[in-house]
C-alpha cells in the first residue's frame, strides 16, 4: 500500500513538471495594414494673363484703311528718269503724285501719312514751285534734294521764304537723314530714311492738328463703285515714260507698268499697284528760263477722271489757295468716293490724250 502511494505521487509530480515546461506560443497578431495615403496631385499654377488690349483702329483719311498710326505726313520728291528705275519706297506711300518737270521727264511726290514708313526712299531729287503748292496742303515735312534756283519766278528757295511748312529737309544741307547708294551713279543715288524723318514729330516738330482728306472712301463691305468699265489706262507722258495701268479684278488693284515693263519697287521687287487713279487736268506753262522750267497751275479748278473698281467716272477738282486741300468731286459736285487703298494722282496738261481700254 505504501508502495502504491509512492508510485502515484511520482506520476503526479512528473505530470506537473511536464505541464510547467510547455510554453504556449501565442498566435501571431496580424500587423495592421496602413491606410493608403491619397495621392496629392499639384496642379500647375496658372497665371491669368490678361488679354492684350487691342490698339484702337481708326480709318485713315488718306487711304480709308484701318490704321493705328497717327497722321504724320512726310512728302518726298523722287525722280523718274530711266536711270532712276527701279525706285524705292513706293508700296508704303498713301498718295503718289506724278507730274512733268522739264524735258518731258516726270517727277513724283510721295506722301507718307498713315502706313508704316519705309527706311529707304528714292532716288530723292530736287523741288519745283508747283510741288510746294501740293506739299502745303498736306501740312507735313517736305523732303527733297536741291531745287530750281534760277533768279526768277521758278526759284524754289525764294518760295520757301514766302511759305510756312511744318518741316523742311533739303539733302543739300541736311546730312543726317540722306545718304548716297554707291551701287548707283550720282545724281540718281540719293536716298532718305522716312522712318527717321517721322520721328521728328514730337521732337521739335509739332503734330498736325487736323489730318487732311482729299476724298471719301467706300466701306470695305460696300458694293464696288459704278461707272464706265475701263480695264486699261495709258498715259503717254513721253516715249520713255508711257504709263500703263491694268486692272486686276481678283485683287481690285491696278498694276502699273512703263511700256511693257512692270514698274517695281526696288526694295521688294514687287510690281507697284494702285487702288485708285486720279487724272488731274491742269494748265501747263513755262518760265522761259535757260533750264526750261515749267509752271503748272494747281491753284484753281479743272477737270478730273477717277479710276477705281475697274470703272471710270468724270468730275472736277478745286484748290482755293496754296494751303487749301485739293478737293476732288464727281459729276454731281459731291466729294468723290474712292476704293480703300493708295492713290496715284496723274497730273497732265489740259490737252493730254489718255487712252482707255
From TrEMBL:
Q: Which InterPro entries match?
A: DUF3048_C, DUF3048_N, YerB-like_sf
Report domain DUF3048 positions. Answer: 63-199, 234-345
Keywords of this entry:
Signal
UniProt-listed PROSITE patterns: PROKAR_LIPOPROTEIN (PS51257)
Q: Which residues form the signal peptide?
A: 1-19
Q: Which domain of life is it from?
A: Bacteria
Indicate yes or no for the key word RNA-binding: no
Name-wise, this protein is: DUF3048 domain-containing protein
